[in-house]
Structure formats: structure tokens, C-alpha cells
Automatic annotation (TrEMBL):
Protein's recorded name: Uncharacterized protein
DUF6996 domain location: 15-85
InterPro entries: DUF6996, DUF6997, DUF7226
Leader sequence residues: none
Amino acid sequence: MIKDTNTRGQKISNNEAWDHIFQDLHILDHLTKNPYFDISADEIKKRDGKEARLMTKIDHREHLPKIMAENNLSILAIKNGLYRIAKTNPFIDIDPEPQSEPIEIGIPNEILSIDPLNIKSESEALDIAYLSKMLQQTFKEQTSLTVRGRLRGELDFSLNNIPYQVDGVQIEVDGGYEGKDALHLIEAKIGYRNNISIRQLLYPTLFWKKQKIAKVKDIKSYIFYYQDNLFRFIPFDENLLCAMHHEEFVFKFNEKSTFKLKELSPPKQSLINPHAPFPQADDFERIHSMFISLSLNQGITKNEAMNDFDLVERQYDYYLNVLLWMNLYKLDNNHHIVITSKGEELLNLGFKKRLEEFAKIIFSDSICYQILQEKNYDTQDFAKNYNLQSTNTIQRRVQTIQSWIKYFNKVFD
């Protein structure tokens, strides 16, 4: 007998809901005899009442349901309301570091309607890349923006000899730029992700390869990451392999920053939230990109927000808690994310000024300031203030602050 949400009791996680689906439909048994298992949106929803579009939105490997990850399975949409589960790996891995020294490029100061140093969305980042001639250098030709947004279409491909005949599935392109020789398709992200689903890259590529334009022009695809002041364009071919040299750019600043981290004054008043846990999240560039992403999606829950990042839930909590600790966001009565007035203030600052304010908040905490100045801190006081239970836990927290110090010094130098 199939149970619904009411009979199962409390609200359950996606992992639990997928466990129920696999158990009720004997999916693992089916896959021992067949190459794939197709499941409808109705079948997904009727067990625990969860929306299929949310249950199947798996943009990164880290978001795979536990039962799929343990059995090397994945799920991809093949029709509107129909999904294929099979033993395939639909994720593209991406190098964390640029391949070469980034090219310095002039800031397009003549543009006043977009601030090149205060980019808050993927579309703004792409528009600035276009206006500053980064796209021209990447594509090796002049182009015009001709494609942006969502559409539906047909395409087919195979992974690990599993066929996928896709029909009517939503396909999204962040930017499509047509030149004399090619149509260049871009999947854009604020901040680095270590992997993305082929749905975000391969589906648009194959769709446009079936259109008339493909008879006279090449179809090329890129992942674009805007990481602080770094613009990365990573090309991929149809086989999901790097097709040519990556292009990386940074804006050239005419004046060097005069901000010196070590010269921060000793804290007189703490600016952090004392009720939030002490940070354990080493990658501050990721924290920054998460802050920008949340500002675009205020009013969503934590679980909805984490879909955009290549983090498991425990890691996501660590990173989200940093912004809570810095008083940059809060949760309303319905557990929706809301940017604080301080957060809104920082969002209106340019890139480097915002990072200066981040540093002032962080090192207003006396323990963080002592770590910055390489002074001995009171371990017992540290443990008591933040309810830390072991020396190893304290050391991991200290390591986080030390990694942030390296990050800030690199940015400001």
C-alpha cells in the first residue's frame, strides 16, 4: 500500500523520500535486469507529496540522493514529467585553478548602468564580459547576443551506452553569442563549482546542433565562472572534454589598494553574531559568491538555496553559518533567508571595498584578531565562548581564519 505524507507523519528529507520510492518500486531489483528505469513525476509525488521538479533538480554530484550515490546511479529528465534512472555519471568535473596567468583587461568605465566592480548576477557578469571585449578574445571573433533564457526542444545522446531521447524538456541558456563562424553558448555561475550536470551544458549544445544554424556555423559551449575579480571561460566539446585553451581575465586596477589587513585597529566592539557558531569554512571566495547568490534569491529556504552549490548539506551549513556569524543574513519566522541591513549595505559596495568591510567584521572578533596578529589566544576562553568541545575542533576553526587571512592578503596585494 502506498502511503502519503499524512500517513508517513512528519516532513521528510529528499533522501528519505527517494528511499521510499526505490523500496516501493523495487528499482534496484529492476536495474539488475534492465539498463534503466523510467519514473514519472506523478510516481515521485504520490508517495510523500514532494514536487518532482525539486526532487530531481540535481545540478551537482553532491546533491545526488544517498541511495543513488551509493549505487552509482543518476537521474536525468527525458520528457516533461518523465525521468530516467541509470548507472551513469552525468557530471562534468572542472579544475579549481586557472590554467595560466589571467589576462589583465581595462575596466569599461564609460558604462554607467552596470558597475563592473559590483557584479551581482550571472547576466551582469556576462554583459560586462561582452562590453570589456573578454568575449571577443575568448571567441576569437566579433559576436552579438542572440540567445538568452528558456526553451524546450528535442535531442538525443547516450551515456555509458544508456540512450537518452529527450523531448520537451526545459533547456536554459545564460548567453548565446552569434558570430560569423559560430554560435557560442555559455553556462554562467557566480563563484566556482567543482562539477556541474551535463543538463546545463550538453542539452543546449545538442539542441542547437539540430537547428538550421548548425549547417553553416559551429556550435561551441563554455562554462563561465565569475570568481571575485576573475572571469574564467572554460570550453567543452560534445564529448564533455576540454576542447581548447581556457581563457581567464581580471580587471586591471589603476591604483593599488592601500588597505592593510595587519594594520586593522584592535577591536573595540564585536560586529559578529555571538549566537552563531564559530566559522569552519575555509574557502572565502565561495562564501562571497554564496552571499551574492542569496541576495538574488531572498525569501527562499536553506534547502532551496543549497541546490545552487556543489556542497553536501553539512558543508553548506558551515558556509551559510559564516554569513549568519557575520550578521549578513537572518532567518524569518518561516525559516526563509533574508539579507540584513548590513548585508544590503555591503552589496552596494564595489568588489574591494566590500572585502575590506568583510575583513573589518571578521577581525572585530577578539579571537580572530589575535590569530591575525599571530598572538596566543586563550584556548579555554575560545572553547567556552563558542561551546567547542575538543582541541581538534578548535584547531580546525583556527585553520579557517588562517585560510581567510591568506585569501585577503592575496586580494589586497
